[in-house]
Input
Amino acid sequence: MTRIRIRKYSWQLAPGDLRDIRQRVFIEEQQVPPELEWDARDEIADHYLAVNADNQPVAVARLFSTLEETGHIGRMAVLPAWRGQGVGEALLHHLIRDAGGRFRELRLSAQQHAIAFYQRSGFHVCSGVYDDAGIPHVDMRCLMAELIARDPGQRHCPAILGNDRDAWLFSSEQPMTQLLDSLTAQASQRLWLYDRVLDHDTYDRPQFRELLSALARRNRLSEIRLLIHDDKPLVKRRHQIVELMKRLPSRMELRLVHGDYPATDQPFMLVDRAGVLYRHDFFKPEGFASFADGGRVKLLAENFLRMWETGRPSLELRDLPL
Output
């Protein structure tokens, strides 16, 4: 891998090399119209220039924010002679480290052929294919930038459902919710959640609600099952997930664990056939998450179904107005 150094600039103070690389790669090589390449976001972005050991410019990227908690990575370009040598990956890892503590979420628009490149650094696809300047693109996002930034490049496809086979341990609320959101965002059909209550700090968050809403609407086979012991906190204080269930009753269902049948004391969430978030008990944010553990998901799914089939609907929630 080629060793590089990376410097950060504002647009006003950026050297001409930064503009030259974008000119050569996007406008000349990829035929992007100049009026699309140079936009107003350059003025508000941080710009990154990678140079090799001989101080030769080899790659560029930019990072900007339009929302307080969302960072946007873009205009990543590596000169042809330096491709395939790890330059782009090193630059992306640098951006993740620089942005990880600043933004809850990182987003980018990736050319379709580069999807695997971004997945290797923890970004998952979150849109269909669309055209941008005549080139097929997809939107990608990373909801775990802060966790990945601690040790970028050490995992294969970190936090990618079905690919990341290493467990992520957590012992506090913030990393747990990042893992929870990242798993939920990648669900294509099924999400089963078992807990004592739908704790407001963990589940009554706008982002989690939006992710569940997107899953419920993703396809006609989407299935969200929520299995809890106590619905009283949901009745006392209006919960965003309750409102969502009222709007999407055919895709979301909540049941209460039957007190006369055995139930496990360890809460968990299952995503499709591969993802799991598991806590060691109801009252602590301690446990692990796995993005590619089909064997464990199968065992926990059998346990979930036993509790689900003996569960009962919440009569109090059913009678709540929308």
Observations:
- The two ends are 57 Å apart (CA to CA).
- Residues 168-318 form a domain with the Endonuclease; Chain A fold (CATH 3.30.870.10).
- The longest strand covers residues 57-67.
- The chain has a mean pLDDT of 92.
